[in-house]
Write a structure and sequence with these properties.
Order of helices and strands: HHH
CATH class: Mainly Alpha
Distance between the termini: 58 Å
CATH topology: Helix Hairpins
CATH architecture: Orthogonal Bundle
Strand content: under 5%
Shape: elongated
Number of helices: 3
Helix content: over 70%
Number of strands: 0
Structural class: mainly alpha
Number of domains: 1
Length: about 90
C-alpha cells in the first residue's frame, strides 16, 4: 500500500511541477520587464531541479540527482550574472 501511495504522490508532484514549469516559461516569455524575466528564469531552473529530483526518486537512478546538482549550481551562477548585468550593465569589470 505504501509503494502505491508513494508512486501516486511522485506522479502528482511531477505533474504539478510540469505545470509550474509551463507557467514559469510564460513568465519568461511575457514578462514586461527584464527583472520579471530573470525571476521567471530563476524559478524555472529551481522547478527543473526539483523535477529531476522527483524523477530520480521515482526511477531510482543516481544520474538524475547529479543532474539536479549541476542544474542548481549553474542556475545560481546564471542568476547572479544576470542580476549583476541588470544592475551595472556589464558582467565583467
Amino acid at each position: 500500500m505504501s509503494e502505491i501511495l508513494l508512486t501516486l504522490a511522485l506522479l502528482y508532484a511531477q505533474i504539478t511541477l510540469g505545470l509550474a514549469a509551463c507557467i514559469a516559461c510564460l513568465c519568461v516569455l511575457r514578462g514586461p520587464r527584464a527583472q520579471d524575466r530573470v525571476l521567471g528564469l530563476d524559478s524555472l531552473y529551481v522547478i527543473a531541479m526539483l523535477l529531476f529530483l522527483v524523477t530520480g526518486m521515482r526511477s531510482g537512478s543516481l544520474f538524475f540527482f547529479e543532474a539536479a546538482l549541476v542544474i542548481g549550481a549553474l542556475g545560481f551562477v546564471t542568476t547572479v550574472a544576470m542580476a549583476k548585468f541588470l544592475l551595472r550593465g556589464e558582467v565583467i569589470e
